[in-house]
Amino acid sequence: MEISNTESIPGRTIVQFYGVVTGNTVRAKHIGRDIMAGLKNIVGGELAGYTELLQDSRNEATQRMIQQAESMGANAVVNVRFATSSISQGAAELFAYGTAVRVE
What we know:
Layout: E1 2-3, E2 14-28, H1 31-43, H2 48-72, E3 76-88, E4 91-103
Parallel strand pairs: 1-3
Antiparallel strand pairs: 2-4, 3-4
């Protein structure tokens, strides 16, 4: 499965559009990560626990989007975007979406 954040895939021709595909995940913060984040806020630096949580969330949402595209018969997803939204205090949704296509 080829994934692109542009409207096409260089060197390939889109021969069929299948439509919008999506994938999402909702994640809650972990109390241990919150404690470490609180300490980092005092001294500064990267919040590695949250960085890891967001990367895992992006990967999971992307894989779910890919699975939906494959089930439609697509071999690529173009115009891929990510969005986040707060669900509740301490929980957020990460949403991946794009257009499923067949390329040659």
